[in-house]
Amino acid sequence: MRQNGTVVAGLRFPAAVALHHLVSSAENTIPLKYSPILHIVLHNPEIPPNTGNIGRTCVAIGAKLWLVKPLGFRVDDRELKRAGMDYWQHLEWEVVEDWDHLLQRLAGKRLFYLTKKAKRSYTTVDFQLEDAIVLGAESKGLPPELLDATPDNNISVPMRTEVRSLNLSATAATVAYEAVRQLTAAGLAELPIGESPIG
What we know:
Largest sheet: 6 strands, parallel
Strand order of the largest sheet: 7-6-5-9-8-10
Distance between the termini: 23 Å
Radius of gyration: 17 Å
Number of strands: 10
Shape: globular
Order of helices and strands: EEEEEHEHEHEEHEH
């Protein structure tokens, strides 16, 4: 594996990629655990273990997890933390009050919306650094007003018609790792392989 570049929280980035490790606010400056290469957004998530598993995936690839209220659980829910195991402490994540707040926080970022109704496969997207992957509530998916706003950005994971939908965390991981594959091929990110600690 190439060893050049900058290593942040176990992720190796080429030197050409600018990394900004501080988030400034009016009151203080909070150091980031890592500079996200992607954003994964859960709109009104309902099931704690799904969110916990997606959080673990975010740590693995260096993505930031966004939770858009209302949530179907408390963020200190035991099932949420259990699914995320001891990785939750390493996660970059944020809870926002509503969709408008999220758009403000992700201003300038491209958003792609996962829906089983989309005719465009996720593999056709040319992913870029800091793109956002948006997934809806487990029971109802994303609201029509979000999907209708930018229909060209609606994507789906192909599946046989015998299946209504995939598990939320499986869908998130599938699409996120395709984005990572593309970014790695483009020389914009590089994840360690075969270096995970045992135990």
